[in-house]
Specification:
Layout (H helix, E strand, L loop, with lengths): L3 E6 L3 H8 L4 H10 L2 E5 L2 E6 L1 H13 L1 H4 L7 H13 L2 H9 L3 E2 L5 E2 L4 H12 L2 E5 L6 H14 L5 E6 L15 H17 L7 H6 L3 E5 L11 E5 L7 H8 L7 E6 L13 H9 L5 E5 L9 H14 L1
Parallel strand pairs: 6-10, 6-11, 7-8, 7-9, 9-10
Antiparallel strand pairs: 1-3, 2-3, 4-5
Helix pairs in contact: 5-6, 7-8, 8-9, 11-12
């Protein structure tokens, strides 16, 4: 069977760099997943191989055009989602995904869903009062929830933002850390702060906290309260006990939303202790008004190596 080739002319050197990726890793990925060879010379991309291989590669490259034509970087999840869209007949939906913007950071960077499951997660939060999101590290569970929470706060759709997580750590004890309670808890709330800093000037956050607009606290501080007109994020919920998670879920008041996130494969509880997140999923999965979203290693949006690490652990545990 003879080879064919097709050449695509890219609009600029910047768009060629965006498509190729660092060290041409994107072109290598496309080659591995289509069987075609992709060679970039300046602004000219030559694709050659068997006819079906070339056709598949061209379709993927063209589907990524909204990114590379504007010299936007193309991530591993962008590539994975493009293949998923092509293989499942969802190219139109993929175009909507590319064009939808969730928010803009303080530095002007656009935040958008990178995978279909991320888009479903965002929709679930927008349409449900309680949303659970379970999945591995790096899938954007906490970050996307924080983005929506900050948007709601800045748009006066809620009166306060409450970020909480259980004070359980991987192999460490709080008592060995220096400082008062707030100083001890802060390291475990760092991921939540990181998301806040993307959208709110760090110098303004202490004032917002003093005024009660933003509250960052360990889960135990939620006991006995009714959380009204609030956007509540419960992070690292796999480290709650069933009683703790039931406690915080029943704090929900009128005008509030709650997002519960966690990775049930990374529980730091004692071996004999059931995870509140696992128990809640079994008990609440059919309750009207509650949404459950499940991410997989295909939704990892961090360094590509993180995805391979997660995938290797999943294979080992099976």
């Amino acid at each position: 069977m003879s080879e064919i080739s097709q050449t695509l002319e890219l609009p600029s050197n910047e768009s060629a760099i965006a498509l190729a990726g660092k060290g041409e890793e994107n072109l290598k990925f496309l080659s591995r997943h289509t069987g075609a060879n992709l060679v970039l010379r300046g602004q000219e991309l030559r694709i050659y191989g068997q006819e079906k291989q070339v056709e598949r590669a061209v379709k993927i490259v063209r589907s990524l055009q909204p990114y590379w034509q504007d010299a936007k970087s193309i991530s591993h999840p962008d590539l994975m989602t493009a293949f998923q869209a092509l293989d499942t007949g969802r190219m139109e939906e993929y175009q909507d995904l590319q064009n939808s913007t969730l928010a803009r950071t303080r530095r002007g960077e656009l935040i958008r869903a990178k995978t279909f499951r991320q888009k479903q997660y965002i929709k679930a939060i927008e349409t449900h009062d309680v949303t659970f999101c379970i999945g591995p590290a790096g899938t954007g569970k906490t970050f996307l929830a924080a983005v929506l929470a900050v948007k709601a706060l800045l748009n006066d759709e809620c009166e306060r933002l409450i970020l909480t997580r259980p004070a359980v750590e991987a192999g460490e004890k709080l008592g060995f850390l220096p400082g008062d309670l707030q100083e001890k808890v802060n390291p475990f709330l760092r991921p939540l702060y990181d998301a806040l800093y993307e959208f709110i000037d760090p110098q303004k956050i202490p004032d917002l906290m003093e005024r009660g607009k933003i509250e960052v606290a360990p889960l135990a501080y939620m006991r006995g309260r009714t959380l009204t007109n609030a956007f509540v994020i419960v992070d690292e919920a796999q480290n709650t006990t069933p009683a703790q998670l039931k406690m915080v879920l029943t704090r929900l008041g009128f005008g509030s939303k709650m997002v519960v996130t966690g990775d049930i494969t990374q529980t730091d509880l004692p071996r004999h202790q059931d995870s509140g997140l696992v128990v809640a999923r079994n008990i609440l999965k059919s309750v009207e008004g509650i949404a459950f979203c499940q991410f997989s290693q295909a939704d990892v949006v961090r360094h590509p190596l993180v995805q391979r690490i997660v995938e290797a652990y999943e294979k080992f545990e099976k």
